Input
Amino acid sequence: MSMEPLTLPEETWHELAIRGYELNAWVICPRKCWFIQRQLMMEPHSPYVELGRLVHQEALQERPSREPTFTEVPIEGFARIDKIAGELVYEIKRSPRKQEAHRLQLLYYLYLLRERGLNLKGVLSYPEQNRREVIELDDEGIQALQNALQAIQQLRQCPLPPQVPRPMSVCRTCAYQELCWCEEEEG
Output
């Protein structure tokens, strides 16, 4: 069952005009986030992203919940929540390898919902590992979000992608690898 986009107070959006995916990318690699901010979308062609999409679709087909369940819940173009069942917000991921990015992304969704008057808990779900982690928005999470959102806003002002150590462990499977390092290979 789909749900209409949630609408948040306008002042919240002016302050937080950051997409959930952008926040996730920033935690993984600020350089990747910089490319995403400029609409350079390489991931639609990535086999790793396609695998994640398949895991996601399969998880959404799980046994029905006794509680009202909504899937693919949009929040005004800034976020798309995988699933809301009862008072739980689910974020479905293929692997816990980038768990810190997943946590912050889910905290962001919980924050956006709280601004809408919905105090919900989150669940990070890793179906392939049969693993779940309950996430609650607390003061520490809000502080981490504020720090990340401020850094992402600053990154938007940078004319060039930020320098990152090369290679990082995430580079091996990153859809942006060729784009990211092509300028250094040419030089």
Remarks:
- The mean pLDDT is 81.
- The first strand starts at residue 69 and ends at 75.
- The two ends are 52 Å apart (CA to CA).
